[in-house]
Amino acid sequence: MSSTKETKILTFKIKRFNPVVDDKPYWDTYELECDDGTTVLIAIQELIAKQDGSIAMRYNCRAGVCGSCAVLVNNKYALACETLVLQLNKNVIKLEPLPSYPVIKDLVVDMSQFYEKLLAIEPYLKRDHSKDPETEILQSPEDFHIIEEATKCILCGACHSSCVSVWTDTNYLGPGALLKAFRFTNDTRDEDRRERLKRVTSEDGVYRCHTAFNCVEACPKELNPTEAIQTLKRQSAKQTLKFWSRS
Ligand code: SF4
Ligand code: FES
User: Fold this and answer.
1) CB 208 within 8 A of CB 243
2) Of 43, 210, 217, 222, which is least surrounded by CB within 10 A?
3) Any residues with Cβ below 6 Å from ligand 1, and which?
4) Domain for residue 2, yes or no?
């Protein structure tokens, strides 16, 4: 039995800006026939291939894994490769680059500030390797469960872009880096917990979070950086109390 695909002509409004030649951003409008398998990314690729090769867009895996295709779709944070256009139930689809990052061109932004914050929390296991056993260091399913959600972060940078505290304080580590800090602080194989907690409670750390929950709303993977930040606050307070009760 053959099934017919639903098709529809949709209007795409894309925010264009090339800082090398443009004084300010402007909108370009395109029409494209889409079907129920057309994602925002496929639509952009078709527009680039058939209508306007000058549109700039960054992507890689096309499977919701690499985090490189995050954009604003009709004012909401989304992964272009995971967003089916017909399911948006709109005739006009508005595409913009992630706010608060400098635009390199059109939908491509410079995420250096996000990566710098990420590097600052040292996002890797820290151990005294001279004492490592010969065999693999195992982690129980219960211990993994504590950090499981945080390991699903794909570093798309949407949370960082949406954070009101990042907008007003560029030194703030931000929700993405702090979620990663939570992930390593609570990894039972890591041996740097004390220093990690000190770092996240520094001037630019967890206490800059005003629990606006923008990051939770923005995250295309439905993760909860705000909760991770609150846990880090509690864990660091406990560590400080322990220190003072011993001295
Ligand atoms: S927490 Fe969510 S929004 Fe933030 S970088 Fe990770 S996947 Fe992206
Ligand atoms: S292209 Fe990799 S997440 Fe969309």
Assistant:
1) no
2) 222
3) 67, 153-159, 176, 179, 218-219, 221, 223, 225
4) no
